[in-house]
Amino acid sequence: MKELIDQNRELIRLALEEDIGAGDITTDALIAPESTATAVIFAKEPLIIAGLRLAQEIFITLDPAASFDTTFEDGDRVDSNDDILTVRGTSRALLTGERTALNFLQRLSGISTNTRKYVDRVAGTGVRLTDTRKTTPGWRSLEKYAVTVGGAHNHRFGLYDAVLIKDNHIAACGGISEAVAKVRSDKAPPRQIEVEVADLDQVNEALESGADIIMLDNMDLTDVRKAVTVVNGRALIEVSGGVTLDRLAEIADTGVDIISIGALTHSARAVDISMRLVE
Questions:
Q1: Residue 130, domain member (yes or no)
Q2: Tens of pLDDT along 54-108?
Q3: What pTM was estimated for this model as a whole?
């Protein structure tokens, strides 16, 4: 978590700067600098919490002496009206940092809560659920962290850490075999190669070219089952595109190895979390 926070210090700074600007004119007019207070951050609906340490860092940025109490850890289920985090510090820091801290908590907990619904739906099947690169620009490491908090896995983080030959790559190279061959001939160290395919003919071509992972993109369940039979364990099979919570169990039942779901991040609703000052 320390590494994750270090990676996102600039994002925290920008978020605070965006909200505070030249100064919190309401709080500064009403609250004496020496005033201290205690605040409680609490859930207003059931959720899977994510981003606790990040929220603390936001308050510490405004008040290095701020202190915290919580009985929860990221990944815990929280019920409606549960107190998530108690914060003690200067009143100005608590009031000024409130919205930024809640924005991070609500967004990340929304992703972890959404992800857990998908994970629970395929529990015991052995299918690996992963996210995609469909993340908020600048928030990728945080949103992918929230996915893991929810119990799923990360696909590639970016264009730099895994080979994924997609439809436009195939079109540019003249075919799947040509694209895979070019990657194999590259002077970089040997790497796992994933190929996106749209039909059973491409499944066969990807298999013959030696792809390690074959991604079935928006294929219907009948063809997914046929692909599993054709591949017969000679490559990993991933399903992507059109994956919904309602369809998830039947997709997992086809025998595929991986299901990647952009909706874990791009369609997660921010959960309802609030803060109140207490005596």
A1: no
A2: 999 999 999 999 999 999 999 999 999 999 999 999 999 999 999 999 999 999 9
A3: 0.95
CATH at residue 64: 3.90.1170.20
Residue-number span of the structural domain to which 23 is assigned: 2-119+268-278
Instruction: Decide if 116 is catalytic.
Output: no
Q: Please identify which of the residues 98, 194, 205, 217 carries the catalytic annotation.
A: 217
Is 187 annotated as catalytic?
A: no
Active site residue 99: yes
Active-site annotation holder among 74, 98, 196, 205: 196
Same domain, 76 and 165: no
2 is catalytic: no
| Strand 47-48 to 77-78 pairing | antiparallel
CA distance 116 to 236: 24
Residue 189 phi/psi, 5-degree rounding, is -60, 155
Q: Is 40 helix (H, G, I), strand (E, B) or coil?
A: strand
226 an active-site residue? no
Which CATH number fits the domain that encloses residue 220? Answer: 3.20.20.70
pLDDT of residue 186: 81
